[in-house]
């Protein structure tokens, strides 16, 4: 696996990508990213929930969550890139959902929230570029209430030796261009969450065979 991009540089990369991120990510995933977002929200978010979208980016998942929580719910969009959140803010205003959301930026590995603050925490494609993916997932789990749900979609390694070798070769060639790779690396965070006590409610692989995603929802025990 390639070394993670330093957080300061990664923030600059995503700020530069903000206005084309959705188009680029959709093309690179053959639009399976949209299906992953829908699955996460459908399986994890309930009406009236207080939701954290960790690594909200341009707000694609947050839009779905804000619609699902209804007028009695609330969504906090958190990201390390103010440029990405600026795009998300515009999208929320255009959809008339600004009253259900707020925006914060900062360190994804040290969230400025107390333990057990949110009914639901979402992370769609935001674990992949983190400097420490497992630490990020456990931080998301920390701010989840007992009985709450963590909904995640993130890159994983392809199945099969040939596909893994092909993916490694392509990533190796593209890694010099973070504007293309977006610093995203396959990972595995679910085992660490299960060791922390999380109970898996839903799990599914999707995406193109060479660059698949794992979508899962895990519940924090009461």
Tell me the layout of helices and strands.
Layout: H1 7-17, H2 21-28, H3 32-44, E1 50-54, H4 60-69, E2 74-79, H5 82-94, E3 101-105, E4 118-124, H6 133-142, E5 144-155, H7 161-174, H8 178-181, H9 190-195, E6 199-208, E7 211-219
Parallel strand pairs: 1-2, 1-4, 2-3, 4-5
Antiparallel strand pairs: 5-7, 6-7
Helix pairs in contact: 3-4
What would your notes on this structure say?
With 222 residues, the chain is α/β, with parallel strands linked by helices. It has one domain: 3-Layer(aba) Sandwich (Rossmann fold). Helix content is 40%, strand content 24%. It contains 9 helices and 7 strands, in the order αααβαβαββαβαααββ. It has helices at 7-17, 21-28, 32-44, 60-69, 82-94, 133-142, 161-174, 178-181, 190-195, and strands at residues 50-54, 74-79, 101-105, 118-124, 144-155, 199-208, 211-219. Strand 2 (74-79), helix 5 and strand 3 (101-105) form a beta-alpha-beta unit. Helix 3 runs parallel beside helix 4 (60-69). The longest helix has 14 residues, at 161-174. The N and C termini lie far apart (36 Å). The model has no long low-confidence stretch (mean pLDDT 91).
What is the spatial order of strands in the main beta sheet? 3-2-1-4-5-7-6
What portion of residues is helical? 40-55%
CATH homology-level superfamily: Vaccinia Virus protein VP39
CATH class: Alpha Beta
CATH architecture: 3-Layer(aba) Sandwich
Shape descriptor reads globular
Number of strands: 7
Derived structural class: alpha/beta
Within the CATH hierarchy, at the fold level, what is the topology? Rossmann fold
Provide the succession of SSEs. HHHEHEHEEHEHHHEE
The biggest sheet, with number of strands, parallel, antiparallel or mixed sense and barrel status, is: 7 strands, mixed
Give the end-to-end Cα distance, rounded to a whole number of Å: 36 Å
Number of structural domains: 1
Q: How many helices? A: 9
Runs with pLDDT <50, length 5+? none
What does the radius of gyration come to? 16 Å
Average of pLDDT: 91
């Amino acid at each position: 696996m390639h070394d993670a991009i330093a957080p300061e540089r990664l923030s600059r990369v995503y700020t530069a990508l903000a206005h084309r991120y959705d188009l680029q990510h959709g093309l690179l995933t053959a639009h399976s990213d949209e299906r992953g977002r829908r699955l996460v929200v459908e399986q994890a978010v309930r009406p009236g929930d207080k939701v954290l979208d960790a690594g909200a980016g341009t707000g694609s998942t947050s839009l779905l969550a804000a619609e699902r929580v209804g007028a009695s719910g609330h969504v906090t969009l958190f990201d390390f890139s103010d440029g990405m959140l600026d795009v998300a803010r515009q999208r929320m205003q255009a959809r008339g959902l600004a009253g259900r959301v707020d925006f914060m930026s900062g360190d994804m590995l040290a969230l400025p929230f107390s333990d057990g603050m949110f009914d639901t925490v979402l992370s769609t494609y935001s674990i992949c570029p983190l400097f420490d993916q497992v630490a990020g997932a456990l931080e998301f789990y920390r701010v989840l209430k007992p009985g709450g749900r963590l909904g995640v979609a993130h890159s994983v390694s392809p199945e099969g030796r040939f596909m893994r070798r092909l993916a490694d070769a392509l990533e190796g060639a593209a890694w010099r261009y973070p504007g293309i790779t977006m610093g995203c690396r396959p990972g595995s965070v679910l085992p660490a969450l299960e060791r922390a006590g999380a109970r898996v409610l839903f799990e599914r692989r999707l995406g193109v065979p060479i660059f698949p995603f794992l979508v899962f929802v895990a519940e924090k025990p009461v």
